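re the bet — no i am not wrong, look at it urself. input seq straight from the record:
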Amino acid sequence: MASNGRRAYGRERFSDIVLLNSQCNQERSDSENFYFTSAKSLNLSVDGMAFNLRYPLREGSCLNIDLCVPGQRGQSRTYRSEVRWCKKVSGSEAPRFLAGVKFLG
């Protein structure tokens, strides 16, 4: 984040289904601590994205995010990322959460 408290990069609306998995730092599958789910993206920037999902994510946890590259039809890419924030959406019948991640190198 920029030192003036504003985002370092602008956000663009981006609505698509993304796939998340927690096997970011593990060399082998650990089924007890591994999860795989989908989420609905809300926005995208050079250094991160936000999305809506059914389950909470722990701040600081590492995720692999598979998404189709905007403007490159049929091509997907995996982004290693860190969960920066997650909050529960109030007023929804089923539990819903909003989360933001920062892409890592």
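see?? The CA atoms of residues 36 and 80 lie 14 Å apart. told u. also The first strand starts at residue 12 and ends at 13. so pay up
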